[in-house]
Amino acid sequence: MQFRAPALVCAAHPHGETAVIVRLLTAEHGLVAAYVAGGRGRQLRPVLIPGNAVEAEVRSKSDSRLPFARVELLHSRGPWLSEPLPAAAIAWVTALTAAALPERHAYPALHEALSGVLGAICMAPSARGWALSLLSYEVLLLRELGYGVPVARPGQSDWPAILHAFDRIGRELARYPLADRRKDVMAARALLRERLARIDG
Q: The domain 2-75 belongs to what CATH superfamily?
């Protein structure tokens, strides 16, 4: 494996004293796990925040070994992590992607949709501006993985219906793609749901 491409950071886990194992979503190569030397250092730590858009250079000597990656920041989501709702939404949607998708399977539609959702979360003045986009991404992810979910699209202004759809889709996610690890990943969604519930209908 050897490529250079735009990617979205979906997860970053410490490895050893200074390195990070990062999961990157690319359009052509799908979800790719890679080793980033010095990923916990002062320069790279803010680059490897989940949700960030990066330019990634990934190299591997063999398909059986974890590839190495070099990353350059293209767009940071860091400024929004101090806001409770956007931070919870970014944490959830990236954790979902990292946990649900099989590695090295291309899902160009999901890559484009995730980029759009992250942009909406950061640009919209409130959750009302991105909640439907997030739900649409979840439904798309389920369908791309082979799970059809008959959920009616609620109206933009019907907040109770949006929350109802959120709960319905959440049950499908926990039942199917996240069945083996729903406790860890769904905790991020539970936090987001709690914060969305504070918005008046």
A: Nucleic acid-binding proteins (2.40.50.140)
